[in-house]
Amino acid sequence: MNSQIKDNVLQIFLEGKIDSTNAQAIESEISKIVSAHAGLSLTFDASGLSYISSAGLRILLKYAKQSGQKLPIQNVSKEVYEIFEVTGFIEIFNVEKALRSISVEGCELLGKGGNGSVYRLDDDKIVKVYKPWMKKEDIDRERAFARNAVINGVPSVIAYDLVRCNDCFGVVFEMINSKTLGATIQEYPNRIDEFVEKYVALAKQLHSIHATKGMFTSIKDLLRTRVPKIAPWTSQEERDLLYSLIDCIPESDTLLHNDLHPGNIMIQDDELVLIDMPEMTTGPSTLDLVSIFRDLIVATQNPTNHIEQSVGIDASLSQKVGNLFFLKYKGFSDASELESYYKQLWLPFALNVVLIVGTESEESTKRAPMLMDKLLRGAILPNEPALRQALQNIT
């Protein structure tokens, strides 16, 4: 039997038919492989398995009992999955169906962001194809957040099946006659006021929702997971300071998107809906406004950022959209109030950017040393008391 070791996990490939005629020989072969790699976690890959009888199921049950946990059985065909389901073995094993493969060759590119790109498959469906470094568990978490968002009343679309696109994962959504908000504003700049009104209404609707407990992680917990990722460019003392700053953020059950720019919003039947929710959390709504400030105001001032690739709007129009968004969201009457508010957002913005540098994108890694010098050591450390107070008072 074929097997491989990856990330300290022993994977054994089940093939053909397993029934009473060959079960004993297969069990003997599996036993040899497992004994030769004692101490490793075990998974089974069923991509080549066409049938399994009760005799075969008893073999797998033996190893499930030995491990004391739900063993993963991956890439299971529809026919074999039905066997696991009817026998109740999906309650004993972590059974994952095989993913169908799709191609986006020739498909219209609707938007591109830090985690992946969105393509239109046909008149009724789109697919978000994730970057190669995105892990399946992270994508599964986004699908769970999308489902929970619908339950909590967030205007969002239902995520359907997980698919394969070459070496990447993808998620299919049902979207009829839709474009991103960014692409639509770029196409109809004369209607910017109308679109920004809808944008503000969506943000306020999201920030009026108090999430059901346990459905989302808190923004503080998310930010804490990011601190170790910037270890290559920071000292332990600097990371300890960042942890203490995160602790200053008030607890809140308000829903946050954390990447609420027009490239992550679709227009469907004149309604705005969210499609990109890998890091939806709960926390003070101001932190969502910080991410909008980051993408629509600050990023557009640097031509090397190429923000239009993710937002879908060129830099000058993005800044116009951002300014109009904050004027309407905050109810400001003139530009002086807006300028004063941007100064309030600057230090939380610096913290936001420092804590997303640890993502696995190549661009983020290249800019990490410069951003740590400019934002961590040039803005956060010299202004630590002011930032600490700002975080304690955000709502």
Task: Describe the model.
- This protein is 45% helix and 21% strand.
- The protein is an alpha/beta fold and 395 residues long.
- It has 3 domains: 3-97, STAS domain (Transcription Regulator spoIIAA, 2-Layer Sandwich), CATH 3.30.750.24; 108-174, Phosphorylase Kinase, domain 1; 179-393, Aminoglycoside 3'-phosphotransferase, Chain: A, domain 2.
- The strands form 4 sheets. The protein has a 5-stranded mixed β-sheet with strand order 1-2-3-4-5, covered by helices on one side.
- α6 (192-207) packs across α11 (315-330) and α12 (335-354) crosses α13 (362-380).
- The model has no long low-confidence stretch (mean pLDDT 89).
Q: Distance between termini?
A: 59 Å
| Number of helices in the DSSP assignment | 14
Q: Which residues form runs of ≥5 with pLDDT under 50? A: none
Give the overall shape. Answer: globular
Rg of Cα set: 24 Å
SSE pattern: EEHEHEHEEEEHEEEHHEHHEEEEHHHHHH
Measured as a percent range, the helix fraction is 40-55%
Here the CATH topology of the largest domain equals Aminoglycoside 3'-phosphotransferase, Chain: A, domain 2
What is the count of β-strands? 16
CATH architecture of the largest domain: Alpha-Beta Complex
